[in-house]
Amino acid sequence: MANTQIAAARAGTVTDAMERVAEREHRDSEFVRKQIADGQAVIPANRHHDALDPMIIGREFATKVNANIGNSETTSDLETELEKLHTAVHYGADTVMDLGTGSDLDEIRETHLEYSPVPLGTVPLYEAVKRAGSPEDLTPELLLEVIEKQARQGVDYMTIHAGILAEHLPLTDGRKTGIVSRGGSIMASWMETHGEQNPLFQVYDEICEIFAEHDVTFSLGDSLRPGCLADTCDEAQYAELDTLGELTRRAWDHDVQVMVEGPGHVPMNKVAENVERQQSICDGAPFYVLGPLVTDIAPGYDHITSAIGAAMAAQAGAAMLCYVTPKEHLGLPTEEDVRDGLAAYRIAAHAGDVGNGRPGARDWDDALSEARYEFDWREQFALALDPDRAREYHDQTLPEDNYKDARFCSMCGVEFCSMRIDQDARDLESGEMAALETTTDLEASAAAAVNLPPVGTHDSSGDFLELADSIGDDAARGRSSEDSSTQGASDD
């Protein structure tokens, strides 16, 4: 029997990882075990990733958020990559995917795994193409070699584009944007060149054996996801989804955990349909969605267009959201773009949890609302999703310390602040309105850790930056902000 989380769960064993997850989610460890055993949730936890603090992804648990990082040919510095990892974790990423395509991939990946407290995902196809020299020169043997190496290094989950088949390719001919998944386009090019079936599909059972040996979780790639609203829910997308359902069950037969990746561009009226269809076809395996973007008209604001769809997907049952930054479709994100993207997605994830009535999820909202009504500015900042941003915006117009005790802000001023007027009315002895009480105790909340402040619960900034300092030099510190940016969210 494989030594994996799902194998242990099926055998009735509650592992240390399951105990830790139960603690973080405020759930019973036996409930966690059963969810893992049934394939309804995953704990991405490669046994070689010693720095990992285990977490769980599943529709019955708090919604999680992934951030993509990675180098390119022009940004291949180890210090820069560590800064990216720190930025993602600091702003609340629950997992991180390294989509690097530049130099020193092994050294960067191994260093990430040495220091990352969150699960690390990869797309091994990228390294395989880099080693082969072109998509057409890929071989099944090379793909297995790269996958096995990354599994030995400690990668917790891998996107495997095994669901796109040769018979699916003609179904994309009438699309507006063709195949927008990088991995999907690579596999399609290989199949068109060689006239053979997808090599990842051909060696899928061998991949399952590697994953079972090291306890790597599948993230089955949506190679034919729609890249625009016009291509949503078409034959190509749904044909691949049917294959992903079959691949899910085959992985479970090998005692390997599975989550399934979801579509990129979906109008609002089709979001729930996409989630429900995936849950049905894939027998409840966790759904990991990119966005989805609910409109195509807002370049520069796609963290907003996608966060709208992400919140709807989370409420419909999606288990993890892959963030999108304002630079989506336009360029390589900067650190500030990453901050904005993660804020948008933490909001979407939390909104989904509140909408689904997750235990204690709304306590954070209530506590902040009480601080706002009491004009407790310092507490309001401390409870904010991004405390620095909230304080910065307040202090742009009222920076002095005495305004931290003021019963107004610069939006309404003294005379027109509705909450001050309401408080004064309630203080009138002759009035009938009673004083309001603040009763929310976050320390006693039943909410999962990700639904309680602070957001960056894994922030090991000292470790990250100390290591970065030991690696870097003054010249490296002088790079532009673009050089310390992250990969785009849709690259997998």
TrEMBL record:
Substrate binds at residues 68, 97, 126, 161, 181-183, 222-225, 261, 288. Residues 483-492 have a biased composition (Polar residues). Its EC number is 4.1.99.17. It is an enzyme of class 4 (lyase). It catalyses: 5-amino-1-(5-phospho-beta-D-ribosyl)imidazole + S-adenosyl-L-methionine = 4-amino-2-methyl-5-(phosphooxymethyl)pyrimidine + CO + 5'-deoxyadenosine + formate + L-methionine + 3 H(+). Residues 453-492 are annotated as: Disordered. Keywords: 4Fe-4S, Iron, Iron-sulfur, Lyase, Metal-binding, S-adenosyl-L-methionine, Thiamine biosynthesis, Zinc. Its cofactor is [4Fe-4S] cluster. Pfam families: ThiC_Rad_SAM. Binds 1 [4Fe-4S] cluster per subunit. The cluster is coordinated with 3 cysteines and an exchangeable S-adenosyl-L-methionine. The keyword Lyase applies. Zn(2+) binds at residues 265, 329. GO terms for molecular function: 4 iron, 4 sulfur cluster binding; phosphomethylpyrimidine synthase activity; zinc ion binding. One of its GO terms (biological process) is thiamine diphosphate biosynthetic process. [4Fe-4S] cluster binds at residues 409, 412, 417. Pathway: Cofactor biosynthesis; thiamine diphosphate biosynthesis. It comes from the Archaea. Catalyzes the synthesis of the hydroxymethylpyrimidine phosphate (HMP-P) moiety of thiamine from aminoimidazole ribotide (AIR) in a radical S-adenosyl-L-methionine (SAM)-dependent reaction. Belongs to the ThiC family. This is Phosphomethylpyrimidine synthase. The lineage of its organism: Archaea, Methanobacteriati, Methanobacteriota, Stenosarchaea group, Halobacteria.
